[in-house]
Write a structure and sequence with these properties.
The chain is α+β, with helices and mostly antiparallel strands and 82 residues long. It has one domain: ACT domain (Alpha-Beta Plaits). Strands 2-3-1-4 form a four-stranded antiparallel β-sheet, with helices on one face. A hairpin with a 5-residue loop joins strand 2 and strand 3. 17% of the residues are buried.
Amino acid sequence: MHHTLSILLQNEAGALLRVAGLFATRSCNIDALSVRVTADPALSRMRLEVRGDAASVTRLAEKTRRLVDVLEVVHLPPGASP
């Protein structure tokens, strides 16, 4: 099943690598990735599209929330925008 995660994180060097690395170590392939700066230049919004069952994606979202640079993780319903 296809899932979309919207992640708010600090706009710092290496933050994207830490999030993508977490997914890689869990053998979860990222189908699509986009990152943009928010209205606050200190923050970025990352949108990840992955495939997997709901339970494994929920576990990955919880682990992502624990990363130092991550402020918020939202598991979006199909067709939603961040």
